[in-house]
Each structure stands twice: as structure tokens, then as C-alpha cells.
Amino acid sequence: MQPLQIRRFPSRAELDAALADRLAQTIGAAASGAVAIMLSGGHTPLPAYRQLAERLTLAPRAIPEALHLLYSDDRYVPADSEASNFHSTQPLLAALRLPEERVLRVRTELPLEEAALDYERRLRALLGRGVQIALGLLGLGADGHTASLFRSEDLQRARGRMAIAVQRPDGLAGVSVTPEFLSHVAEPLFVVAGSGKQSAIQGLERRDPAIVAVQAVQGCPQVQLWVDQADEQGRT
After folding, report:
1. 49-58 residue pLDDT tens
2. Order of strands across the sheet with 163-167?
3. pTM, 2 dp
4. Which of 34, 57, 120, 149 makes the best surface tag, with the fewest CB within 10 Å?
């Protein structure tokens, strides 16, 4: 992992707008080749997803046929559950109008371990077709986790895998991509907002090996960190 490229935004609104712009830019890049975007879950990226969906709805444009979407992780809940990362992105998916085969979701209708193996097979197939994972969004928890990789034990089980089943501290199971898969992402981008994350941010900046998120992106040649500076400084 090379030193972080860090951008600090004076307000949450500026962070959301910049992220929506970055997503739109990557979508446009799919016009010149097969490109995938990895979406992260949680609450942080949702305003940017909604903002981009509104732009696409107000000013429709042709979406490149080579665009694919996938997810960093998802909870093992029905696809229409409010807790599902896939469900939370429905406004963006509706605006993009992508066919089902170009949206790689965790098939939570399968048994948990089978869902993880199925997701892994499809991720490997995507890479095998030469699709570039151009942009990969990642969250950062106050405990230093990213995607649904919470513990060092998760990272150990993830060796040689593209996706694994996990047991989350909130009592839910889930499926997460792994450090090996993240090493194929051209531009991993941590997007961080919300109070109480200062320690995790500082650990990521120091590349503290005790932080799970640091270990998760260790094989990535470049990593970006975008932070809502108001939250970082403890302001509202």
C-alpha cells in the first residue's frame, strides 16, 4: 500500500457532490471499455447515489453497455430488506437502467456459504473477461473495519478467496469481498463521514497494521481517502 491520497472536504454537501461527480466520470469511462464500479454500503455514500440518480433522471443519457456494478459487501438479508445494501441502491439502479446481468449482487436467497461461493465465482468471471474494476468505494467504521471485514480472523480466512461469508458484530451474517479482490481495484476510495471515526482515520493515515482496513488494502498500489472534515473535527 502506497501513501494515501487524502482529500478533506469542508462540508458533507461538498463531499457528496464530489463523489457523485466521481461516479459519473467513471460511468462515462465505460464508453471506451469494459468498466466496473464497486459500490459500498452503509449510510455514507447514499446521498451521492441519490444525487447521481437525480441527475440521470433529469438529464437522461445513454449508459455505456460495458458498465458493470458490484458491491463491496452485503448483509445476509432478503434483497428487498431495508438492511440490504443492494436494496439501498435501487434509486441509482433505476436511473442507470442496467440489465440484471450487469449488476453483481450477493444472492442472499441462497444458503450463506453458497451465496459467498456464488459471488466469488461471478467476481472471478468478471475479472476473467477483462473487465477493469475502475473505482471501488469503501467505508470505514469507527472500529477500523471496511466492507464486512471486521476481524483479523476474517482476513486470514480470506486468503486465496475473492469473497467470503462473515459473521458481523451486529448479529447478522454477510458476504464480503476480500483483500485479494481489492488488489484488482484500480482506484480504491475510502469515503468517510460521521462522528467518532477520528481514531480509525488516523490509523488509516499511519497505515497502522492493527487496523483491519489497512490490512484489507495492503495489496493495492494506490488508495484514496475522502473525509468530511467537519465530522473529522467533531463539528456538526
Report:
1. 999 999 999 8
2. 73-75, 173-177, 163-167
3. 0.94
4. 57
